[in-house]
Every structure is written in structure tokens, then in C-alpha cells.
């Protein structure tokens, strides 16, 4: 369903300059044979649009592609009653209007031949080459006969993987969906709603991320009309009402033209109407719309420097709204978008939003990656550019978000998991850039935490992450990162440690969530996945350095048992409890937990009393060396240091720990309360006999008034 079909009575909206208009193609007449020496009239629109962007383009291959498409689709009809060939023609015209190069247009003419006709990929490869064949294969759907309910998610997975190698695959898919949405009124209402929801959740975000605003805005409006018809009609009425009478934007535009002309800056000043969804969002944000909220001023100039010259003149001659200023030229968006955004107060107090960009930036803002032409053609005259250290902008057709998406989809083998995760990932419509300590960068969705940064940088090694430094300060893994932050991830020396379930509360990226979920599923009986092994009574995550620590215990096993603990009863694996981290010569007792393992606690651990209260039978346990000797393999212990806050306290404590030859497995520093600071350290000691000396050394640090063994409550399960 097109915007015109949804609202045929709407008056034309004024605009000072034609934008890319994708709504011109009606039913194409297909009458009789066409001589080989000229293009069929049916693709005359496509040829004209293509030559407007590429004057020297060879149209011969388009002629051959059209002949094959028309002959193979002959006799097929769309549900609207039109000949099927009108669909590939419409898709190709959309891409031609956007400036796509010849290869893309050739593939778009053929994009349904392999799926819906007897034409094979081998025939396409033989007649049009490997490149066109790859694009056609990329957009060809998987059969429901073979995949059942998984056909749709697996088709999108296939397209995304193909897009990772050639972004033009997704360009064709977006244009294909746009034409289908324009003609969706012939479908049953329930099918319209289903297709519109997938378009909203998947295709619109992909169009946004690829920078193809001309497709994205129309798709949004078409989805809006189907899924919220009342809201659409209300917005249509508002826009209709705003078209009559005096337009305050026109007066401001005239003033801006005069100002720039007097300053000697060559610029084109246009009024850019907002599309329906944009007006709807502004209304929801502000409640009552201002007369200037139905459009924005667009100032087009020749060079980048002219953009800043225009900005200077506007801020000098008009009152700027400082909070509205954004510089997307110095810091482009992740979808290639570049512009200066500002707002100025015009006559009578009217506030006008202003976009300032070059003509080239405008083309990219409208067409995104499609405006790049053939991004894979080598330009021998272009200067060689150094490879960026972060890889985010090394290839504009393979942006960082796409690389990350392709990485995590490999782990989401289940179609339902992939489909749900994809939609959640694409719903995160803003990105931030954080810096690593080596100067490289990480691209993350807005709202990402240190957990996400850890998995983005270290992959599965992030399972051993114990904390972070953000802008030089110690931070918990739950800390939400901001654009421009510098983050240093701290990894435990013990690679056997793993994430806590609470990490999922702080993970926003699919890569982090899938990795954490996979580890927890593979270690169902690990203390890190049990209540009491993952955090304290408040549910704060110990392994993430996100509160009082109760880390996974040392599990140096020999023959299925902890190396220095003996338990009575059958041959069951034994492990040291993470809540109290017993070490020789502590008095200990064990309890059988899930999976038949025996967890060994200190006798005074609060968990012991609760286990007995619910009727759990204790299992006798003792250290292997009966006289209290130490285990040659070392031991792990959790200590809590209570202190008064002062500068360098953390450095002095860690120095005291290092002097005692203890390794810090994890560390937590709680926010100061009444000038008191609580530090929690999980340490690996070479010998349990050295524990008393270590605790004395920590107490001797200036400001520390107590050091004790951790006594965190543990769960009974």
C-alpha cells in the first residue's frame, strides 16, 4: 500500500525542490514483442533514471535482463491483477532513482526469476556473470517445504550473511519490500499486519543502519498506516490542516537566504517536510505541535567548510537553540550520515530546525550505501587510505554493527533464538563509540555496559572478566557506558571462572547474551550459576565485581574430588563453597547439591545453619592433611577490608596483597558510605598457612580498621 493509496485525498505537500520520489511507477504496459535494437518501452523509466545518475552506463545488459525476466514471468500475475513483471520493474526503478549502479539493477530485474520460475542460478551465472548471480541468490527465499516455520528467519539469516559479503543484496531486498508494502492492500488484513510487523522490526531498522533514508521513511509511513490506522489518520489531518494559511518556515527560509547571500555563501535553502511518522513522534514528544514542527530547513552547500560557515552566520544573525546543535560531520553516524544540526529562533519567536550539509552528503543521507555506486570496484586514481585501527570504517559497506551481527548469528543456531535476538538487536537504534586503552575503538549500542564491552573485545575470554576501569576509575561490570568513554577490562588469572546469571541483567548486545547463556547452560551446577554462588543477598553480581563478592571457588580436581578435601560417602565430586571460601585449617562440613556434587562450607557459614533447618543431611568433610598442613596447589579465599576513604588506598592494599605473593582473582570496591569504604577481594594464595600474615599486612595499611573472612549468605539449593 503506498502513501497515495492510503490517503488519496491528501493535498500535495509543499516542497521547494524535488526530493528522491519513489512513487511514480504505476502499471507498466507490456504490449507485444520488442525489437532487439532498442530498449523495451516498459523499462524506459528505468533507463532514464539510471542515465540521470550514470550518463555513460551500458544499458545492453539491462535489456538482456529484462528480456529474460519478462519471458520467464510471462503468464504470472500478482494478486493485484497486474502482470508479475511489474514487480521487478518497480523494484528496479526504485533502485535506479536512488542511483544504484548497473549490476544492482540487473540483479533486481532478475531477483524473482530463480525463486518463481524455471530459471536456474547456473543460467543467471552463465548469462550475467558471478556478481549478478550472487546478488540474485542472496535475495532468493528458502522454501517452506524444506524449512517449515523456520523458513522466514532462516531466509533473513541467509540474506544477512550474503549482505556481509555484498551490501547490494540488502539494497535489493529493501526495494523489494517497499514495492510489496505499496501494494499490500490486496492481502488479507491479518497478513498485512504480519508483514508490516516484520517490516517494522527488521527491514526499517536495516534501512536506517544502511543509511537509505528514502526507503526507510516511506516504509515507516506504510507500516504506520497499517498497524495504527487511527494514529495515521490523526496525523494526516494535522498535516492537512497545516498546509493552509501562512507558513512560518517560509519566512525563516527567506531570512536565511538573505543572510547567506549577504555573507557571500553560495547555498540552496529548502523546506524539507517531515514524513508522517516523524510528525507523529514530535507530537508525542511535545504534546502540542508548533507551526514549524511540520518541516525543517535544509541548507545545501558545495564544500565541508561551507557547512561551518553557514552555521556561523546562522548563530550570529539568529538566536540559536544551543541544546539542538549536533555535529555529525566531524563525528558521522554509524550509517554514513553526515550533517550539522541546529535550531534558530526566527521572527515572532518561531523555532526552526536546520540541517546543513553538502550536496554529496545529501545524496548519501537519502540513498545511504546505494549512493556509493559499485563499492567493490577498484579506483586506481583514488588515494590509498591507511587501514583504520578499529576496523569500524575500513569498509563502509561492512560497518561494525553488521560485522557484530554476523558474528553472533553463528552462535544462534536455533531459528527462534536467531529471529528473537535479531529483532531485539535491530531495535537498538543508536550506537556509541568507546575507546580501548590501546587506542582502538569499540562500537556498541546505546545503553551498553562493561559486560557488553568485555565480550565485544575479548569474546569468550570475557567469561573471566572481574571488573573494569572506566575513564581511569574502577567500575563494576554493570556500569553503563557513554559515548567517548575509555574502558579497560580486567580479566581474572583463573580462566576456569565464569559469568554469573546476573550478568544477563546488564548485557544488551546479542553477542554477550548468547555467550553468557551458553556458558551457564554448559555449567548448570557451577556455583556461578547458583543463588549464593553468583552474588550476595541483594542479588548483586559477585563475579562481575558488582557488589560484595562471592566468587566461584577453586576447583582443582583430582579423580573427581577437590585436591585437598576428603568427604565421606560415595565417590562424588567435591568443591569449596564460594560463599565462605574455606581454607585449611578451617573446620568444614559438606552438603550434597544438585548433580550429586558435595559443596564444602566453613562450619560457621550461615548456609550451614539454613541447610540443617530444611533437613539437609551434612556430609563429614576434612582437609586431606589432617594436621592442618597446606595444599601444595594453593588455596582461594575471600577477604573483606573495612577502611576509611583516602587517596591511594586501593593501590596500597593491592601492594600489600602482592607482597604476600597472593594473586587477585577478583576485586570489588563499594561506593563510600559515611567516609567508609568496603573492599572485597578473592585471592589465590600459594599456601593457606600464609593467610594470617596476609590479613595482618592488610590491617597495617593506613586507613584500614578491619580485615575479615567473607561471610556472605548462601542459598540452600
UniProtKB/TrEMBL annotation:
Record domain HD: where = 84-181
Q: Where is this region: Disordered?
A: 379-399, 520-565
User: Where's the ACT domain?
Assistant: 638-712
Which regions span the lipid bilayer? Answer: none
- SUPFAM superfamilies in the record: ACT-like, HD-domain/PDEase-like, Nucleotidyltransferase, TGS-like
Q: Where is the TGS domain?
A: 430-491
InterPro entries, sorted: ACT-like_dom_sf, ACT_dom, Beta-grasp_dom_sf, HD/PDEase_dom, HD_domain, NT_sf, RelA_SpoT, TGS
Q: Which family does it belong to?
A: Belongs to the RelA/SpoT family.
State the name under which the record lists this protein.
Answer: HD domain-containing protein
Amino acid at each position: 500500500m503506498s502513501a497515495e493509496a492510503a490517503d488519496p485525498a491528501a493535498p500535495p505537500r509543499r516542497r521547494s525542490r524535488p526530493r528522491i520520489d519513489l512513487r511514480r511507477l504505476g502499471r507498466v504496459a507490456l504490449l507485444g514483442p520488442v525489437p532487439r535494437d532498442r530498449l523495451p518501452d516498459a523499462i524506459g523509466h528505468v533507463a532514464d533514471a539510471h542515465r540521470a545518475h550514470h550518463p555513460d552506463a551500458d544499458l545492453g545488459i539491462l535489456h538482456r535482463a529484462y528480456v529474460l525476466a519478462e519471458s520467464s514471468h510471462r503468464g504470472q500475475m500478482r494478486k493485484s491483477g497486474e502482470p508479475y513483471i511489474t514487480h521487478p520493474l518497480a523494484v528496479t526503478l526504485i533502485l535506479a532513482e536512488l542511483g544504484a549502479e548497473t549490476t544492482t539493477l540487473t540483479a533486481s530485474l532478475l531477483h524473482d526469476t530463480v525463486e518463481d520460475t524455471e530459471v536456474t542460478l547456473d543460467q543467471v551465472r552463465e548469462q550475467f556473470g558471478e556478481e549478478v548471480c550472487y546478488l540474485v541468490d542472496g535475495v532468493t527465499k528458502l522454501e517452506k517445504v524444506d524449512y517449515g516455520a523456520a523458513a522466514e528467519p532462516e531466509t533473513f539469516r541467509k540474506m544477512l550473511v550474503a549482505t556481509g559479503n555484498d551490501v547490494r543484496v540488502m539494497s535489493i531486498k529493501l526495494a523489494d519490500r517497499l514495492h510489496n508494502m505499496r501494494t499490500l492492500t490486496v492481502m488479507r488484513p491479518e497478513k498485512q499486519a504480519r508483514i508490516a510487523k516484520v517490516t517494522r522490526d527488521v527491514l526499517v531498522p536495516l534501512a536506517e543502519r544502511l543509511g537509505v533514508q528514502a526507503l526507510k521513511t516511506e516504509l515507516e509511513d506504510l507500516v504506520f498506516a497499517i498497524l495504527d490506522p487511527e494514529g495515521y489518520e490523526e496525523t494526516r489531518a494535522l498535516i492537512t490542516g497545516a498546509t493552509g494559511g501562512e507558513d512560518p518556515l517560509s519566512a525563516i527560509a527567506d531570512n536565511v537566504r538573505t543572510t547567506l547571500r549577504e555573507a557571500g555563501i553560495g547555498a540552496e535553502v529548502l523546506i524539507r517536510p517531515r514524513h508522517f511518522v516523524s510528525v507523529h513522534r514530535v507530537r508525542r514528544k511535545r504534546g502540542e505541535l508548533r507551526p514549524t514542527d511540520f518541516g525543517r530547513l535544509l541548507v545545501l552547500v558545495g564544500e565541508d567548510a561551507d557547512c561551518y560557515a553557514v552555521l556561523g552566520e546562522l548563530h550570529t544573525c539568529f538566536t540559536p537553540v544551543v541544546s539542538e546543535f549536533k555535529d555529525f560531520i566531524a563525528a558521522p553516524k554509524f550509517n554514513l550520515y553526515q550533517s550539522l544540526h541546529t535550531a534558530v529562533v526566527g521572527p515572532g519567536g518561531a523555532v526552526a530546525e536546520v540541517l546543513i550539509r553538502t550536496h554529496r552528503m545529501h545524496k548519501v543521507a537519502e540513498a545511504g550505501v546505494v549512493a556509493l555506486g559499485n563499492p567493490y570496484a577498484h579506483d586506481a586514481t583514488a588515494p590509498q587510505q591507511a587501514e583504520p585501527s578499529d576496523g569500524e570504517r575500513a569498509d563502509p559497506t561492512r560497518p561494525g554493527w553488521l560485522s557484530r551481527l554476523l558474528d553472533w548469528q553463528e552462535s544462534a543456531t536455533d531459528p527462534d533464538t536467531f529471529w528473537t535476538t535479531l529483532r531485539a538487536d535491530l531495535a537498538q537504534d543508536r550506537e556509541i563509540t568507546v575507546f580501548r586503552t590501546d587506542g582502538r575503538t569499540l562500537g556498541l549500542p546505546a545503553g551498553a555496559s562493561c559486560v557488553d564491552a568485555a565480550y565485544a573485545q575479548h569474546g569468550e575470554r570475557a567469561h573471566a572478566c572481574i571488573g573494569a576501569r572506566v575513564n581511569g576509575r574502577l567500575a563494576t561490570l554493570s556500569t553503563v557506558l557513554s559515548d567517548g568513554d575509555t574502558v579497560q577490562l580486567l580479566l581474572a588469572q583463573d580462566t576456569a571462572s565464569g559469568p554469573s546469571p546476573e550478568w544477563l541483567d546488564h548485557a544488551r548486545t546479542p553477542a554477550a547474551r548468547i555467550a553468557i547463556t551458553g556458558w551457564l547452560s554448559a555449567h548448570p551446577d557451577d556455583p556461578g550459576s547458583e543463588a549464593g554462588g553468583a552474588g550476595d543477598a541483594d542479588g548483586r553480581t559477585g563475579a562481575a565485581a558488582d557488589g560484595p563478592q562471592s566468587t566461584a571457588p577453586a576447583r582443582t580436581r583430582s579423580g573427581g574430588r577437590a585436591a585437598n578435601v576428603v568427604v565421606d560417602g560415595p565417590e562424588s565430586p567435591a568443591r569449596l563453597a564460594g560463599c565462605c571460601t574455606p581454607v585449611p585449617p578451617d573446620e568444614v562440613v559438606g552438603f550434597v547439591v544438585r548433580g550429586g556434587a558435595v559443596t564444602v562450607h566453613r562450619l560457621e557459614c550461615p548456609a550451614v545453619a539454613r541447610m540443617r533447618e530444611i533437613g539437609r543431611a551434612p556430609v563429614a568433610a576434612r582437609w586431606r592433611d589432617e594436621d592442618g598442613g597446606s595444599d601444595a596447589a594453593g588455596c582461594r579465599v575471600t577477604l573483606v577490608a573495612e577502611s576509611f576513604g583516602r587517596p591511594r588506598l586501593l593501590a596500597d592494599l593491592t601492594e600489600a596483597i602482592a607482597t604476600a605473593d597472593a594473586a587477585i582473582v577478583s576485586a570489588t570496591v563499594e561506593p563510600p558510605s559515611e567516609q567508609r569504604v568496603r573492599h572485597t577481594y578473592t585471592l589465590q594464595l600459594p599456601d593457606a598457612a600464609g593467610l594470617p600474615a596476609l590479613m595482618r599486612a592488610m590491617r597495617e595499611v593506613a586507613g584500614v580498621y578491619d580485615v575479615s573472612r567473607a561471610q556472605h549468605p548462601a542459598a540452600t539449593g
